[in-house]
Amino acid sequence: MPFSPFLDAQRPYLRALIGALSDSFPYVSVLGTDVRAKQFLVNRNSSSVRDNGMLTQCGFVVKLHDGKCFREYSFDSTELPPEELAKKILSAVTLSPSLEGETIVCPVPADEPLCKSFVRESDFDSYADEDILAFAAKLKDETLAADAHVLNAIVVVSPCTVDKLFLSKRRELDQHYGWCNSMLIAIYRDGKTVQVREDVNSHRMADIFANLPAKRERLLEKAKKLVTAKPIEPGVYDIITDSSITGLIAHEAFGHGVEMDQFVKDRALAKSYMGKYVASPITNMRDGAAATLSVASYFFDDDGVEAQDTQIIKDGILVAGISDLVSASQLGTRPTGNGRRENFAHKAYTRMTNTFFEKGDSKLEDMIASVKHGYMLFETNNGMEDPKNWQIQCTAEYGIEIVDGKLTDNYVSPVVISGSVPELLSSISMVSDCEEIHGSGFCGKGYKEWVPVSDGGPALKARAKLA
Amino acid sequence: MKDILTILKETTDCEYRVNTTKTESYELFFVHKKAETVRSSDSTTRSVTLYADHDGYKGDYSFRVSASDSEARIADKIRAAEKQAKLICNQAYSLPAKETLDCDIPSNFSSLPMSELAAQIAEACFAADTLENGSINALEVFVYRETVTVENSNGLAKREHKYRAMIEAIPTWSENGDSVELYEAHRFTQFDAKSITEEIAEKLREVRDRYHAKKPASSLDVPVVFRAAELANLCNELASDLQYSAVYGKTNLFSKGDVLQKRTDGDPLTLEAKAEVPGSRYSAAFDADGCSLIDTTLVEGGVVQNYFGGTRFAQYLNEPCTGALPCVRLHAGTLTEEELRHTPHLVCASMSGLQLDLYNDYIGGEIRLAYLVEGDKATPITGISVSGKLSDALASLRLSSDETTKGNYYGPDKGLCRGLKIF
C-alpha cells in the first residue's frame, strides 16, 4: 500500500498553515498521522472485526516555540482556510494573564534541513479480512478440540499500518510501516481455572499465520501446569528471568529512569548517576526505534527526529539517557528520537521504544544449574516504575522452582518482584547467550499516555525479593 | 457536506450505530512551577458500526470516520463494512429501540473559559506548596469539554455534555541533598479550589513522611488498611468478572449464588454497578449502544446476586439489559476511626499498584509509603510489600463508614484486611 493519500493531499494546506503561523512563532512544525488499525477477535461463541480504537487515528498537531516555551494545538478538520485556522490556533494556545511571565525559557529548536521518505513494506494487503478470520476461527476450533478442559479459546490478530507526515520550515519527512500483534488465549479449568496466553508479533502476517498455531501445544502444556500452581512463599531468592521478564526489568527498572524529561523535572535519580556504575559490569542495555525491528521501530519520532539506537548502560555504567525535543531543548542536548504521542491529540513526551538488555555469553542450562534454590520467572503481567526513588515492582505470570540446579514441576503464580533497582541490577551475575524481543506491550507514563513498546533480552541470573 | 446519517441511509439497508465524541481541551504543563507547554485541542472521534443480518446470524463491523473524510470516502467505507459484517456470524440480537435524550452531566466548569479554569486549578495546586522542603516539581492540568452522542438506525438519538478535569502532580520532598516523590492523579468534575489545595497539601505531607520513612527493623504482623484507590481496584476486578460478556464467554470465575466472601469477621460485602457516582468523570446517562443505565446490585451480603451488561449479551443470556454500567459502589461498613485507634494496623498510603488475581486467589503489591498506626502514633514506613490470599482478605474485610469517590468508585474510604503477610 502506498503512503496515505489523505496525508499526501494535505501537504499544501499544512505548508500554508506553517507559513501563516511563522509570522508569530520562530519554530513551527506539523505532524500529520493516519494510522489504520484493525482487531480481529474470535472466541468460542462470538467473533468481531473492528477498528482498533486504541491505535486508529487521523489528525494533526502543530508544535510552536514562541522564543520562550512550547505551545501545541491538535486538530482533525482542515475545513477552515489555513489563515483562519492559524488565527484560531493563536487564540487557543493563549495563556491566562495570571500565568504570563511564568513560563520557562528554553532555546528555539534547531530545524536542520532534511527531506526524506521512509518505507518498510508489510504483507498485510495480501490477506483479506476473510483470510484472517478463517485463520483465527480454525486455530480457535483446534485449541478447543485439543483438550476438554479448555472452556474458551480466544484468538486476537491486530494489524496496524502507520503513516506519518512531518513538516517544518526546513524539513519534510514521511514514513509508512506496519506491525501486527497476535495472541492465542485459553481459559482452562481442571479443578482451578487459569487463563494462559501465547503471542506472535511481526511486520509480516505470514509470520503470524506460520508461528501462532505452532504455540498451541505449549499453551496447553502451560495451562496444565498452572492449574497446579501455588502462591510463592515470600522471600529473597536467586532468580533466572526469561526474556520477557528481562525486558520488563529493563523497561521498569531503568528505562523509565533515563527518560530525560524526568531529568528536567528532577524526577530521575539516574541524572546524578551518569558515568557511574548502576549495574553489574556484565550488564549492557539499549533503547531505540532503530535498535531492533519490533513494534516501536519507526523511522522518525513525533517531533520529526530520526530514529536512533541509544546505548544506555555499557558494562554496568550508565552512559546515556533518551529524550524528546522539548526535554533536549531544555537540557541543551541533542534529542534521541524518543518523542512519542499516544495520538495526535496528546502531548509528546520522552518515551521508550524497543528497550532491552544485550545478550552475554552464558548458557541457559549452566545458569539454571548454578542455582541451589530459586525460581525461573516467566511472562510479563505488568510493572510500575519509580524513577526518583529507584524502587521497582514487576509481576511475572508464573515461576518454576529450581532445586539443586534443576527445574522442578513446582509452579508458582503470580510472582511479584519488588525492591531496589540498584540492588537488583548489581546482583546480575550471569547473562545468557540467546535473546528475544517481545513487541506486544503498551507503556504508560504514570497512568496515562499509552504507546506501543517492545522489550526483552537474554535470560538473566539475579537475586530478588519475590512475593 | 451531508451528515453521516444521511450518507448511511443513502448507502445501505443495514442497521447501524454512530458513536461520536467531540472533545475540546486546554492543557497546562508546568516544570518547577513554570509553564513549559501550553496545549489545546479540538477533535472529533466518530465510529460507525454496521450490522448485517445474514443466515440467521448478526454480523457487525466498526470503522472510524475522520473529520477529513469526504462523502465519497465515507460511502466507500460503508459499502466495505457491509461486506465485512457479513463475515461475522454471531447469535442474532436486536438494537435498542427509538429513544431520545439530551442531557448535561452537572459541572460548574462552564462558568469560566477553559484556559482560565486551568490557570485557577494550577493556582489551587501551587497554593498547597508551602512546606519548606516540599515542592510540586511537575504539574499537568487537563480540562476537557466533551459532547458524547449515540445514534442508531431505529431512531435512537442520545447526547450528553460533560466537563472533566485531571491534575497529575509530582509532590517532592528534598532534604540534605536527597529527595523522594509521590505520584498524584486527581480527577474531578466540579471545581473547588479549596478541596484541590487540601488534596495536594495532603500529598505533600505524605511525601515528607516518605522521606522520613524507614524499613521496619522486624517483620510486622498487623491488619492492613487499604484506601479508596485500592478498594476501587478490588471492586472493579470483581465487577468485571460479573459482566454478561464474561458469563457468555465462560471467562467468569464467580456465578450467581456463589459465596464470594466466606465471612469470618468482615463486614458483609455489598457491591453495586451504577450509572453515576458523586463527582466521578465516569458517570454517564447511557452506554455505547445508547441503552439507559439501570443500577444493579451485583453482590449482597457477600453472595453474588446479579450480572450486568449491555443489550447484546443480555439478550444472549435472557437477562435484563442494565447497560454497560460505568461506576461501582461499595456499601459502607462498620469500621470506625475510634476502633482503628484501638487496633494497631498498617495503612497503605501509596502503592506501586495493587496486584489482584482472581484466578490465583492473590492480592499484594509493593508499598511506597505506609503508616504503622498504634493508638495516636503513626510511624511512616517504606520498603515493604504485602501479599496474601484474596479470599482471606475478603473474608476479613472491614469497611469504614466514611465514604468517598475515587475514579469510578464510590464507597468506604478505608478497608481493613487480616491475614496478609507484610515483608
Secondary-structure map:
The complex is a heterodimer of chains A (467) and B (423).
Chain A: H1 5-22, E1 27-42, E2 47-51, E3 57-65, E4 70-75, H2 82-92, E5 114-119, H3 129-146, E6 150-168, E7 171-190, E8 192-202, H4 205-211, H5 216-226, E9 235-241, H6 243-255, H7 260-264, E10 285-287, E11 310-314, E12 317-318, H8 325-331, E13 339-340, E14 349-350, E15 354-357, H9 364-369, E16 373-384, E17 391-403, E18 406-412, E19 415-420, H10 421-426, E20 430-445, E21 448-466
Parallel strand pairs in A: 5-7, 9-16, 15-21
Antiparallel strand pairs in A: 1-2, 1-3, 1-6, 3-4, 6-7, 7-8, 9-21, 10-11, 10-15, 11-12, 13-14, 16-17, 17-18, 17-19, 19-21, 20-21
Chain B: H1 4-11, E1 15-31, E2 34-54, E3 57-65, H2 71-85, E4 90-91, E5 100-104, H3 114-126, E6 134-152, E7 157-175, E8 178-181, E9 184-188, H4 193-212, E10 224-227, H5 228-241, H6 244-248, E11 271-274, E12 296-300, E13 303-304, H7 311-317, E14 327-330, H8 337-341, E15 345-351, E16 355-357, E17 362-374, E18 377-381, E19 384-389, H9 390-396, E20 398-399, E21 403-406, E22 409-412, E23 414-417, E24 421-422
Parallel strand pairs in B: 5-7, 10-15, 14-22
Antiparallel strand pairs in B: 1-2, 1-6, 2-3, 3-4, 6-7, 7-8, 7-9, 10-23, 11-12, 11-14, 12-13, 15-17, 16-17, 17-18, 17-19, 19-24, 20-23, 21-22
Helix pairs in contact in B: 1-2, 3-4
Q: What can you tell me about this protein's structure?
A:
The complex is a heterodimer of chains A (467) and B (423). With 467 residues, chain A is α+β, with helices and mostly antiparallel strands. Helix content of chain A is 22%, strand content 41%. Chain A has ten helices and 21 strands. Chain A has helices spanning 5-22, 82-92, 129-146, 205-211, 216-226, 243-255, 260-264, 325-331, 364-369, 421-426, and strands spanning 27-42, 47-51, 57-65, 70-75, 114-119, 150-168, 171-190, 192-202, 235-241, 285-287, 310-314, 317-318, 339-340, 349-350, 354-357, 373-384, 391-403, 406-412, 415-420, 430-445, 448-466. In chain A, strands 1, 2, 3, 4, 5, 6, 7 and 8 form an eight-stranded mixed β-sheet that branches. In chain A, strands 9-16-17-19-21 form a five-stranded mixed beta barrel. A two-stranded antiparallel sheet of chain A has the order 13-14. In chain A, strand 6 and strand 7 (171-190) form a beta hairpin. In chain B, the strands form three sheets. In chain B, strands 1, 2, 3, 4, 5, 6, 7, 8 and 9 form a nine-stranded mixed β-sheet that branches. In chain B, strands 10, 15, 16, 17, 18, 19, 20, 23 and 24 form a nine-stranded mixed β-sheet that branches. In chain B, helix 1 (4-11) crosses helix 2 (71-85) and helix 3 runs parallel beside helix 4 (193-212). Chain B contains nine helices and 24 strands. Chain B folds into two domains: 4-211, PmbA/TldD superfamily (PmbA/TldD fold, 2-Layer Sandwich), CATH 3.30.2290.10; 214-423, no CATH class. The model of chain B has no long low-confidence stretch (mean pLDDT 94). Chains A and B meet through strand 2, strand 4, helix 3, strand 6 and strand 8 of A and strand 1, strand 2, strand 3, strand 4 and helix 3 of B.
